[in-house]
Amino acid sequence: MKKLDLVCPAGTPAALRVAVDNGADAVYMGFRDETNARNFPGLNFSVEELAEALDYAHARGAKVLLAVNTYAAAGGGEPWIKAVDNAAMLQVDAIIMADIGLLDYAKRTHPGLRLHLSVQASASNAVAINHYVKEFGVRRVVLPRVLSVTEIRDINQKINIESEVFAFGGMCPMAEGRCSLSSYITGKSPNMNGVCSPASHVAYVKQGSDLKANLADFTINKFSAHEQAGYPTLCKGRFSANGAAGYLFEEPTSLNVTRILPELMAAGVSALKIEGRQRSKAYVRDVVKNFRRAIDAAARGERMVINMDHLSEGGQNTTGAYDKKWM
Amino acid sequence: MDVMSSSKLSLGPLLFNWDAEKTRDFYFAIADDAPIDHVFLGEVVCRKRLAGKNYLPDIMERLQKAGKKVVLSGLILISDERDMKASQDLAAAADDYMVEANDLSLVSLLQGQEHAIGPYINIYNEATLKYYEQQGGRHICLPPELPAASLRALAKVATSDLEIQVFGRMPLAISARCYHARAHNLHKDNCQYICNRDPDGLTVETLEGQDFLAINGLQTLSYRYGNLLAELPELAAMGIQNFRLSPHDVDMIKVSQLYRDFLDGKKSLAQTNDSLEAEMIAIEFSNGYYHNVAGLEQVNKP
Q1: ipTM for the complex?
Q2: N or C: which terminus of chain A carries fewer CB neighbours within 10 A?
Q3: Does B301 fall in a domain?
């Protein structure tokens, strides 16, 4: 079995160097605008920074994947076209996209550019994936986090391109690229603006000894004095239905697949993706180091369980939909 | 005929898990009395709910006899063989009926044949719209989060019939996880079809008691009901002339008649609004997406 590729987040040039130095096989990033799904202040790359990043990574044997994975705006698609053109000009190793119009443009205009299908395209079955292969020549699919390991294996038997799965970090309980919860509450969405539950709409409000974490004036969670307050991502809050309160959608938790690496390899997965372009350099360093060890161990046929609870949201981790029990 | 009176009303697929009798009565009444042109039928949210829907042929026949065009809608999320089988069955029916794809895989199965495309397929820009039209998309319902500027730009280049939802809770998300089952401490595999308890979805409140969202099995909907009544003249003028009413457990015949009368110039906007609000006293409406603000907002134009 082929060794798994370790694909790591690079929110900034500094994080990129940390990821490459600690064993990333590939790094991914976005340009500093709404063309990528982590359009946060202080993150991402200019064209010049991406050129330097390519030199740095290539000199050390790592690949550079550029995410242009939001949906181009009607009547205003120039930033997306420019991002694709710049990716081709700089000769990135692959561009990660979700928008059909952009995939079509990239294929026609830059036939040499390697295309990866973003998780934001939510291609959750072999028929959809093969359509992207046939129509646009996509070479790798990042699978949506709605599939069990068995379903991933079934898909891989019916496609002849590489698959990449999420391995660690924040986890959407919703099918990615098919969620407008954030824009319903804040006006800004992952698909259109590259943000979810944006910090610009977050407020922490004291209420007696409690702390409320609000998003656009909606209380997403409430923490008592002994609880650690978390970020109010709107699908990971505490709400109530039928009079009972709890985490109705998902708990604050992080995905961690280290303990199922052998199963993912057997299911035909080619690459593991670490989420977290918004994370610190220290976080990237620790996660990349741990996954380097785990992947190398799995390649030797060993199962290595690495405790990374201190790097997880709420100190909890899950294997998400990979295990059917999650559903 | 002006652009308003030549516009058509669609009844979107029933998103909720109503029992067989209620569903049959509902559609028979729609067939007999509602001024609806296109009726979208079928289960889009959860494949498990397809079991026991053997009454669909009766409904289809009654609707067609009443002169309504029947469109068969497919599942939103297709992740295993059984989901795919449902799509293949629909594709096989495409010679006799218009089929609405809600996932790219069904578009792929229907490639080259005329079909409809639902709001769950991401069409955000002209190039994407054009691509789907080239695949055979003839009747295309656009995603609910698009603002007026995007709708206008898309309408300008469209060669297909564009549609937008103008009434009902807006679909916001789909998941592999069943939130209805989770809210009742059940597993999806043994869900007991608990979603049938909430004919309009299960209200989600914040810990402060603010109305927030609505759960519908694997789907999450807006708490507020989208309502683009006031925007109909602008939509029709930009070339979007199919208006989707999403079924709810209210008097949909009356609701559709109100929209129809407004489109036909028989009632003013104020009269129609008053009647709609009188019919649905407890319901809050919103039109924020159209006005490029948060979807839950209600923007009242001066």
Answers
A1: 0.97
A2: N
A3: no
Q: Which B positions 27-56 lie with beta carbon below 8 A of chain A? A: none
Which residues 137-156 of B have a C-beta within 8 angstroms of A?
A: 143-146, 149-154
Which chain B residues are closer than 8 Å to A128 by Cβ? 78, 103-105, 108
Structural domain for B110, as ranges = 8-170+222-291
CB contact, 8 Å: B201 with chain A?
no
Contact A241 B215 (CB under 8 A): yes
**Chain B, nearest residue to A175 by Cα:** B175
Residue B141, SS3 per DSSP:
strand
Q: Is B290 on the interface with A (CB under 8 A)?
A: no
- The residue ranges of every structural domain in chain A are 5-171+253-326, 181-246
Q: For domain A5-171+253-326, which CATH number applies: 3.60.15.10, 3.10.20.90, 3.30.70.60, 3.20.20.70? A: 3.20.20.70
| CB contact (8 A) between residue A128 and residue B103 | yes
Does residue B236 lie within any of the structural domains? yes
Nearest-CA distance from B147 to chain A in Å? 10
Residue B295: its H or E element? none
Q: Give the neighbor-by-neighbor strand order of the sheet with A210-215.
A: A202-207, A210-215, A218-223
Q: What is the pLDDT along chain A (327 residues), one digit of tens a residue?
A: 789 999 999 999 999 999 999 999 999 999 999 999 888 888 999 999 999 999 999 999 999 999 999 999 999 999 999 999 999 999 999 999 999 999 999 999 999 999 999 999 999 999 999 999 999 999 999 999 999 999 999 999 999 999 999 999 988 999 999 999 999 999 999 999 999 999 999 999 999 999 999 999 999 999 999 988 899 999 999 999 999 999 999 998 889 999 999 999 999 999 999 999 999 999 999 999 999 999 999 999 998 888 888 888 777 888 999 998 898
Residue position matching structure tokens 């590729």: A5
E-assigned strand segments in chain B: 8-11, 38-41, 69-73, 98-101, 115-117, 137-141, 161-174, 202-206, 211-216, 219-227, 242-245, 285-286
CATH number, residue B162: 3.20.20.70
Using CA atoms, how far apart are residues B54 and B58, in angstroms rounded to an integer? 9
Tokens at B124, concatenated:
């955000």
* Domain-located, residue B194: no
Summarize pLDDT for B220-276 with one digit per residue, the tens. Answer: 999 999 999 999 999 999 999 999 999 999 999 999 999 999 999 999 999 999 999
For chain B, the domain total comes to 1
User: Residue B301's pLDDT is what?
Assistant: 66
| Lookup: tokens for A44 | 């991402």
Q: Of B130, B207, B211, B284, which to mutate for an interface test with A (greatest number of A Cβ within 10 Å)?
A: B207
Question: Distance between CA A112 and CA A267 in Å, rounded?
Answer: 29
Residue of A nearest to B125 (CA): A74
B173 interfacial to chain A (CB closer than 8 Å): yes
Contact A164, A264 (CB under 8 A): no
Task: Let me know if residue B138 belongs to a domain.
Answer: yes
